[in-house]
Amino acid sequence: MDDAVTVMAATQRRVYTRGSVLPFEEDETREFKGHRNIAAEDIPPWVHQGLSREASTRKPVSRNLNAFLNTGRGGTVYCGVDDNGRVLGMHLTRYQKDHVRLSVRDTLRRYQPAVPDDRHRITFVPVVSAADGQHRPREFAYEASRRKKRHLVATSNYCWCDAEAKARSHVGGTTARSPDGESRPMARSLAVSRGRVARDSDGDSAPSGPSL
Ligand SMILES: [Zn+2]
Predict the structure, then answer these.
(1) Is residue 197 part of a domain?
(2) How far is the CA of 33 from the centre of ligand 1 (A)?
(3) How far is the CA of 153 from the centre of ligand 1 (A)?
(4) Domain containing 106: what range?
(5) pLDDT score at 14
(6) Which of 1, 4, 24, 25 is most buried, taking the most CB atoms under 10 A from its CB?
(7) Cα(162) to centroid of ligand 1, in Å?
(8) CA–CA distance from 79 to each of 123, 132, 145, 206, 211 (Å)?
(9) How many domains are there within the chain?
(10) How, if at all, do strands 16-17 and 120-128 pair?
(11) What is the whole-number distance in angstroms between the Cα of residue 157 and the centre of ligand 1?
């Protein structure tokens, strides 16, 4: 079970099916990303070594956010979606979702001029396999104390949340079936708008209202 990101109607909880293709293509307001490197500093060193095709094509999400801001039209980055619009999803623990939120906020605050927090919104959209249908496992609360642990942003170094997620996947065999439901794969969308948009309060899921 995975999550991806999206735009949705108000009362309906949106879910993506893994392997499905989004009904639109990349353009000036939409970008698909198979990774979640938000800032330029998040790009791992091997990318810069130019050893693979990936090396020459991986660009941070911040580049697109910057472009969306500069056009004045805003836009949405879909992470966990390949170049062809196919929904892959990505495994993210709740702590890693916190990390993504912090990383985006940190990145936008470092822009000149800084981008106010209310000009972006992050939505985590569940990705299910075709066999799962709309079923989502119940999510359990995570530990408040651990949520206070500082995340390492603006660096390609491993943060504790990534190290923990990796360790878990080794122990558990498959994070997708983690009994606590925290490690389900997710995809997410980052929307930047010209005007005010709803912020996600605590929230990792339940996107509401249309994106841009
Ligand atoms: Zn982290």
Answers:
(1) no
(2) 19
(3) 7
(4) 2-192
(5) 82
(6) 4
(7) 6
(8) 10, 21, 28, 17, 15
(9) 1
(10) parallel
(11) 10
